[in-house]
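re the bet — no i am not wrong, look at it urself. input seq straight from the record:
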Amino acid sequence: MTAAFVLFGMMIGLYRDKELQFTAGLSNEIWVLPRFPSDPYVGLPLSVGKSLERFRGVSAVGAWQHFGGYRRGPDDPVDIDMVTEGMRHARPDAPVKKQQWNRLFADPSGILVSQELAQKLQLKAGDRLPINTPPGIRADGGTTSIFHVLDVIPQDPLFTDGVIWGNANYIENVLALDRRGVGYAFIVSVVDPAKAIEVSQAIDAHFLNSDAPTYSIPFRIDEEQQANQNINYATLTWGVAGAGLLMALFLVGNGIARSVRERLSEFAVLITLGYSQRLLMGLVFAEAAVPCLIGSLWGTGLATLVLQLPMRYVPDALRILFERQDLSIEVYVWAVFFALAVAFASSVAPLLKLRRLSVASALSGQ
């Protein structure tokens, strides 16, 4: 039972974690990207943002563009997301304070670095970050851009691997003339999250025949597609959890059935002494429920401990699945519920046999 509920706890915990990711936050925001891929990447014109602001139901529009290069060599790449001032309103869930946004947009060469990347790149507030780019990127022919770390910010829920925010005014001032005002993507915030799909469709229909056709998708739908790209989490998690419960059902059902079958004469004596069949049936159910409940609590507790292990001790196949390392109280509630369900299912056949028990036949050993 414990082994079965270790599987159950880990799998249902993973399922609930992913389900919460899909339903919580980011649901009122939309990606607006170029419809057709290109190499090199062309992106959308910055002027598209003005049109997006006029759509009904849109509350804010922010644009961003990747500016990448390397520090010490090509094997040490760094990417900065250069954003327009509208991003502060388009991403209200971003862990950036108002004062930090103000400093960023007041300093063209300033950057905000998330904690993960700050540790990886060994950066702190006040440091300089030089980035080398290929010739021809800058209008002045230079190949080095110097950025100043304004502050270190918490992890952004949209960028689990870390992010560096920069000021789009910087690239608009230093890029070659033919690179300015293009190469952007947009984040659109809508007033009503329930209408995110409707707004996405309206945006794509508007730009369908333009020089810059768009592909718009709500964050939540994009998260679901990304998560289920290689595996279907619901099928995987419930399939493994179900296998564990079937194993428990087989073991407990077989044990209870054998226990009742071997003690029919004892049950007959109890009935003769005045015990009601209802009471005896309750005792049989309790005999099945106790190991199920204990096993469910031990198993989910052990699953919690397993998930507290550092990720380096977890096999690669599981490491890509588990991003969080805890189980919610809801998983324990589900474990108790299914433990009782397994106990009930295991007791059905023995209870029916006990209900049809003939006292005379049982006492005579027939």
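see?? The chain has two domains: 2-17+230-363, 29-191. told u. also The two ends are 34 Å apart (CA to CA). so pay up
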